[in-house]
Amino acid sequence: MRALQIVSAGVLEVRDVPVPEIGPDEVLVKVAGAGLCHSDVHVLHSPEWPLPNMTLGHETAGHVAKLGNDVTGLAEGEAVLVYLVWACGVCRPCIEGRDNVCINAGGRDAMPPCPGLGPDGGMAEYIKVKARYLEPLGDLDPVTAGPLADAGLTPMHAINGARHRLTPGSTVAVIGVGGLGHMGLQILKATTGARIIAIDSSEQKLEIAREHGADETFLSDSDTAAKVLALTDGYGADAVFDFVGVQPTVDLATKIIAPDGALRFVGLGGGSFTYAADSLTSTIPWGVDVRRSYGGTRSDQRQVIELAKLGKISVETKQYSLEDGIQAFADLEAGIVPGRAILVP
Ligand code: NAD
Ligand code: ZN
Ligand code: ZN
């Protein structure tokens, strides 16, 4: 079969690889579409990431092609989504429903295994997956559903952890309206009564933000913080989601968060801020709670699928053939993909 693999740091190739053999508790899924996440770009360029000859793709949906001997509850031909978090399922955080921070992931800063970032992912004709990591999609189209597994899941988790600040009358700022941000906007619109401000460095992305529920849109520049504060009587946004995480957006996020606000860092752009434990040099107002939000739980995943089934959220896609996958990476890096790029084998 054909697969898009990392050959070495910075080098991609679409090449022939064997169709995976499945074990008794596994399922062979014929991929219908695989989303391309900005994390794939980070991984591609990271010299630290030891994954040569690995198939990328952690946002995968498709049809069940073959069932392992012990698998029950799934049928051949059924449309399924591959859940991102391949956690152990039995440790204390897992049984508490916090499988995204599974103890057995391998340390305080580790992530549970996920497809395309260790095990082979979905940018291929087939992927093998343990049956328990599959979510039935019902009538949802698997060509475009893959990004529900991260671009949908990850904002849902960050938003679910900030609901106490997303009451009607509150203001929320979404920084970065790419794959994650455009889904985050729709989830906020569908599930909260908050006023939504969207911020991006690209006018094209702000147009997408207006289509997907933003009440106000601002280009990110030196005046953005002042504009957000002016809209909120100088108080700031009750919740801020930074889906970029570069230094300018981290700075902006800390400048616009309101007292007692929920500050959620999701983007992995390498920015940082200093916490100062005194009033003179403090970088954030009183009461702010800060979370470094990773992925989402199985429960968050179900909620995302249900919202999609109700037609309340949908992935805006630009589709590429798997053979054109390297072009899709280039377009994502150039910032010209609206919503999410999908590779279709
Ligand atoms: P994307 O490329 O689709 O979107 C990024 C958006 O940010 C684009 O719209 C771009 O125009 C905008 N942007 C870039 N620089 C900006 C700036 N200075 N100010 C304002 N906007 C700016 O990326 P994505 O796939 O949505 O991923 C976003 C980030 O989230 C990446 O860093 C990715 O690695 C990370 N991520 C984190 C998790 C997690 O669990 N924490 C999960 C998935 C992705
Ligand atoms: Zn991702
Ligand atoms: Zn666990």
TrEMBL record:
Key words, A-Z: Metal-binding, Oxidoreductase, Zinc
Organism: Mycetocola zhujimingii
SUPFAM superfamilies documented for this protein: GroES-like, NAD(P)-binding Rossmann-fold domains
Listed cofactors: Zn(2+)
Membrane-spanning segments: none
Catalyzed reaction equations: a primary alcohol + NAD(+) = an aldehyde + NADH + H(+); a secondary alcohol + NAD(+) = a ketone + NADH + H(+)
EC number(s) stated in the UniProt entry for this protein: 1.1.1.1
Gene3D superfamilies per record: Medium-chain alcohol dehydrogenases, catalytic domain, NAD(P)-binding Rossmann-like Domain
Protein name: alcohol dehydrogenase
Keyword Metal-binding assigned: yes
